[in-house]
Amino acid sequence: MEKTPTPHIGAKKGEIADFVIMAGDPLRAKFMAEHFLDNPVLFNQVRGMLGYTGTYHGKRVSVMGHGMGIPSIGIYTYELFNFYDVNTIVRVGSAGSITHDLHVGDIVIAMGACTNSNYGVQYELPGQYAPIADYGLVRGAADACERLGCNYKVGNVLSSDIFYNENSHVDQWMKMGVLAIEMEAVALYMNAARAGKRALTICTISDHVLTGEDTTAEQRQTTFTRMMEVAFSLL
């Protein structure tokens, strides 16, 4: 039985490339389509979650929004991996730094993802699972950052289920060497692992928990182009 279109993605099989670059904000996906893709074609606007397929330097690629939080990216990446034959998903997002080594505008490449979510309970594993990115993508992203002259760090992030957290315990995560807080990587990595696919999260630091540095919504939507260049270089 054909499972596409899905309840959340209006595309037919074959309309989405096997390499997808995703952003939480669908307008960031639109920005990437307009500034990076040749001949972009809109394949999804269900629930306003824009998705486009085009080419970048002759290579077919799709860009799409995934919404905010683990449940939202969990749905979209599950459907892409399992119903649309997508092989690779790279998330480009924003994160809050919890280290003095990363400041607004710097890049964090999430080699691993800690979490306070129960997303992994569904797998009924007899212990704690450590979700990680695809090593080839991590290495490629780090190489691209070096070529572009980006200030970046590779390491662990915290995928938090909570944005307005009454008790964030940031100091404990800092003690364990976690670099930044975001809200999606863990579901992406678990979905990729379960499907036998590749995934990576690349984030630009949009605010700093320790120093109070911050950016506007417009800046986050349109100016985080360096991490986008890094993502497209992985094609």
Put the structure in a nutshell.
This protein is α/β, with parallel strands linked by helices and 235 residues long.
What does this 3D model show about the protein?
This protein is of the alpha/beta class. It contains seven helices and nine strands. Strands 5-8-7-6-9 form a five-stranded mixed beta barrel, surrounded by four helices. The model has no long low-confidence stretch (mean pLDDT 95).
Give a quick set of tags describing it.
single chain, 235 residues, alpha/beta, 5-stranded mixed barrel, 30% helix
Layout of secondary structure:
Blueprint: E1 19-23, H1 26-36, E2 38-44, E3 51-56, E4 59-65, H2 70-83, E5 88-97, E6 107-115, H3 135-148, E7 152-159, H4 170-175, E8 180-182, H5 185-195, E9 198-208, H6 217-222, H7 225-232
Parallel strand pairs: 1-4, 1-5, 5-9, 6-7, 7-8
Antiparallel strand pairs: 2-3, 3-4, 5-8, 6-9
Helix pairs in contact: 2-5, 3-7
